[in-house]
């Protein structure tokens, strides 16, 4: 493939920009440059990507999905996924935090913006560029986000929640925590609500550390969460609707954008390695060059898969029933599985392209951080758990009889 074409393919957005603001791309690129400069330190020190989020706030990209009357720009999910993709090429931890933040924002925006308390919070997000975190994993339930043990307790016009939050990514840095909970003490574990707490409403006591192979800057420690508030902080719609309509599609697509970004930067490094090796050897390709072609082809497939899923989401976005339909839920969930596994395969091909230069940490062609970060993708909401849950559903899903079906 022509080098200039490949270069454009790697750097290009996942979908053509649709916003009128001519400075949007430039704002994103300023953040990407800052995130990239700090990425190695964030990984090495396992610290929150402070520089990237200071830049995201300065460029007013935290509340970019909000409508203009709430201080945003009405950005689409495709815009959010593309920002996640570009950040993924720079700093995977910053990208993943941004993706998780936006999935929380999307839930509050779609399901709560007509409620006065939530609308006021969204206006604060637009004004102050707040950081939202989620707490959906709890105790021994682990990744079963559709089950909650801790109930919301009501007492004299107030609510209380005490939750063993086994993972709250970047919880210590967040301004807002959006958490699932059992509706009441006598409710079933699957009868859940989503509650929004501001930092003044809760106290966190750390219970687990975060010393991991990759995604070290997400600071996904465990906490004992104790929160109080008013009943209006409970989202007006049940979580059984919020989860399929917003949490699943937005998070799966934004995460996929992050993983594709990691893979894209790994391919770019592999491309640079092959170009240098060819220059130094009178045009002779290095032994691993064939793996670059495989990685490039897989990256095209991954980008196309995400773009197709985004278009399907946008077609269904205005129809609650379409979002909750079995076929849509199966598609969006399997997109997460396939995107995560494809991204891992791409980075491995990049390692094989670069050989020892990609394996070393002190090489300009190193993809060690990329590999460590992307290996989180199949276990972030375990692919095994997802596939087991979908086993019966896929039996009921017809195999398409044509390519246009």
Describe the model.
This protein has 13 helices and 7 strands. It is of the alpha+beta class. The chain folds into 3 domains: about 5-130, Orthogonal Bundle (Butyryl-Coa Dehydrogenase, subunit A, domain 1), CATH 1.10.540; about 135-235, Butyryl-CoA Dehydrogenase, subunit A, domain 2, CATH 2.40.110; about 240-395, Butyryl-CoA Dehydrogenase, subunit A, domain 3 (Up-down Bundle). A 4-stranded antiparallel beta sheet has the order 2-3-7-6, with no helix packed on it. Helix 7 packs antiparallel against helix 8. The longest helix has about 40 residues, at about 240-280. The two termini are about 30 Å apart. The model is unreliable at about 1-10 and about 15-20 (pLDDT under 50).
Brief summary of the model shown:
With 405 residues, the chain is of the alpha+beta class.
Q: How far is it from the N-terminal to the C-terminal residue, by CA?
A: 31 Å
Which strands sit side by side, in order, in the main sheet?
Answer: 2-3-7-6
The number of domains is 3
Q: Tell me what portion of residues adopts beta-strand conformation.
A: 5-15%
Task: Give the fraction of residues assigned to helices.
Answer: 40-55%
Shape: globular
| CATH H level, superfamily name of the largest domain | Butyryl-CoA Dehydrogenase, subunit A, domain 3
CATH architect. name of the largest domain? Up-down Bundle
Q: Could you state the order of secondary-structure elements as H and E?
A: HHHHHHEEEEEEEHHHHHHH
CATH class of the largest domain: Mainly Alpha
Rounded average pLDDT:
93
Count the beta strands.
7
What structural class do the secondary elements suggest?
alpha+beta
Radius of gyration (Å): 21 Å
Low-confidence stretches: 1-9, 16-20
Q: Largest sheet, if any?
A: 4 strands, antiparallel
Number of helices: 13
